[in-house]
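Per reviewer request, we include the raw input and output of the structure prediction for the construct analysed in the revised manuscript.
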Amino acid sequence: MAAVARRALKPGLEWEFDQHVLPRDASRSFVTRYLVDLAETGGWELARHAIGNDGVRRIVVKRKIIRQQRPLFYVV
């Protein structure tokens, strides 16, 4: 797994991207289970998927960054 990148596509909407590289001998069912696990546990969704000439799968997943605003006052 690679470092996570963050980028704003629209004002007020930020996405977090993560790149994964799977070996050529990874079966289609393994890749499906892997992506489902990422989606269910981390809230990731598939952004890009490419299979290179060498058979290596390069997958980019993304998820929204939800920022919570600080309250203007505190109730005691």
